[in-house]
Amino acid sequence: MASGDDDDPIIEEIDVYLAKSLADKLYLFQYPVRPNTMTYDDVNHLSAKIKPKQQRVELEMAINTMSPNYCRSKGEQIALNVDGTTYDESNTYSVKMMDKQTFSSIQATTNTSRYAAAIFRKGELHVTPLQGILQMRPSFTYLDKADSKTREREAANEGGDSSQDEAEDEAKAITVRFARPESEQARQRRIQSYEFLQKKQAEEPWSHLHYHGVKDGRSEHERQYLYCQAMDTTENSELVKTPKEYLAMLMPPLAEEKVVKPVGPSNVLSMAQLRTLPLGDQVKTLMKNVKVMPFANLMGLLASGTDSTAVLRCIQQVALLVQGNWVVKSDVLYPKNSCSPHSGVPAEVLCRGRDFVMWRFTQERSVMRKEISAVIKLPPEDVKEFLEHMAVPRVNRGWEFLLPSDGDFIKKHPDVAHRQHMLWLGIQSKLEKVFNFSKEDFMPKNAPQPEPVHISGEQRLKAAQDRVRENQSSLQQDLNAKRQGAKPSAHIKQELVINREDEPMDTTSPHSSSSIPNGSINGYPISISPISDHTNGNGGSPATSPSPELRDFVSKTFRKHFVLTLSELKRLFNLHLASLPAGHSLFSSISDRLLQDTILLSQCKQILVPFPAQSTAAPDEQKVFGVWETGDTFDKHRRLLFELFTKNYRVKRNMVQTRLVQEFGDDVSKADIDRLLRECCCSRTGMWYLKGTIQS
């Protein structure tokens, strides 16, 4: 410390005094739009006023209209716009020219405890705390007055004879509504609203002031109060604090200020808070606020690395697919026992009306508001709210769906698209009963009908002709044999038996009772027309061996999923049929037997899983097939796993790990086990099941 004192010697000691005479009245004015070399000291100040509680000040200063830099024509034009041509005592500019301007203040900071004004005199420093720091900026309220004058003139020009207007007035029915009791959240939102703050500011009256220039005698008198007035009293004793205490007084440690969070609307949630919620709640919250969203945008809002399959499961619980985009379900926006904030209509009625609007958008890009209102018969405020959730108004085109159709999502997730299509068919049937309409009522006249996928007439005719010729040949052979005393051929009987055994494959989902109806899957027309005589689609003989296209489909599907039940494969095959282009005749009639034969010919084998006796799985769900040979070294791991599942329909992870280590030694890594289970199994309550063998 001694060496430090020698290097930094004290040059001079200055006494510091705290002046308190002006502590509650001293303001610092700043003019941020004016250079510091151009002060307003010599400008004539016409008036001044203040609102002390708000620390708001207004100064009115004269403009030198004789200056060579003043544009007289502009000044006269502004005065004319503001005051008009008539003279009145309330005119802003009495000389028909803009000869003054107003400066209005805003607070530069709300905490001035660390700021003070200091003045140095004869080796003494006198410090006075500041009450406020205000930034003075030009006010343009005269432009608002000019706008109101313009509107008044336009209204006067457009207005007709007032007596005629009064004569045309008729008695109109009015609706009396009683205000609901204000909740605490609503009160907080109202207090923080801009309108409320403006009203509170207007309630405080202005206090008018007298301005004194810098060189005025009153100003010089007031400046004397910047000096401490009690310098000779005993209160001004020497500082007896230690250096550490004195430093702590000069620079107190920063205390963590408790920032009071503003009470915002209940539906406002930051992304950081959102990501602390479970995935289902995240998806529900986002959809409830956004209303309509593409799946890609939803994945972008969620945390990176979120499983898209899990998101797909969650989104289907709170939203419906419309034109490839997800629209929040009506019962999420209007929960049970709630009502419309506009009309008081019950939630159940609102949900039906909004579902009808959503269904209409699955059929067309644009809808007419009058057509919607005529069907659902709800108040116009509710109908408008439904449309604003998912559409935008277009000139002469009604309301157009908010987002472009997302065909990429439909192509990437055809199973989801099909499931949503079937769901919409169920909703449509309910809406038809409730609102008493049919889909054809909304079909535009001369609208092009979608071309269904079907077997052409020529192909059917050729198949029938081949069948007749074949039967005629068989009958002729039997007739000749009878004449020669031989037994007739059993060709026809055998053929009938084969046709009975090799029935067309049921391409419905396991939980559906009917085949895919003709219609569209989110805008893609489909119509499946199986051939009753089980030809191969080209008019030939019954299909007894799989076509190359079928084998290619089965092979690629198993290379992607590794393990499939027969019902799941049929569902994927069903979706594949729906995605075929118009006029495509392949896979028109495939039997379960042919499909199973194709599976076994695609390097796959059936896994005889011992399902429990109380299992509710359908027969097709109990037929499990897995990839047996892919040419990969990982095949042996997969076959060993399948062997475990022939002994029990569920296994534990440690059982799989132990069996693999026994067979392949320590070469089996954790990554290998993870890959094996991820490819072939799904987990539930700590146990692992083959894919498709456990019901969701």
Report what the structure shows.
Residues 529-547 have a biased composition (Polar residues). Residues 146-171, 459-548 are annotated as: Disordered. Residues 146-156, 459-470, 492-502 have a biased composition (Basic and acidic residues). This is Polymerase (RNA) III (DNA directed) polypeptide E. By secondary structure, the protein is of the alpha+beta class. Among the domains are: 16-63 and 99-152 and 187-252, no CATH class; 271-442, no CATH class. Helices cover 41% and strands 14% of the residues. The strands form 7 sheets. The protein has a 6-stranded mixed β-sheet, with no helix packed on it. Strands 1-7-6 form a 3-stranded mixed β-sheet, with no helix packed on it. A 3-stranded antiparallel β-sheet has the order 10-12-11. A hairpin with a 2-residue loop joins strand 16 (519-521) and strand 17. Mean pLDDT is 78; it is low at 161-168, 259-265, 445-454 and 487-543.
Short overview:
Pfam families: RPC5, RPC5_C. This protein is an alpha+beta fold.
State the main characteristics.
696 residues, alpha+beta, 6-stranded mixed β-sheet, 3-stranded mixed β-sheet, 26 helices, 41% helix, 14% strand, elongated
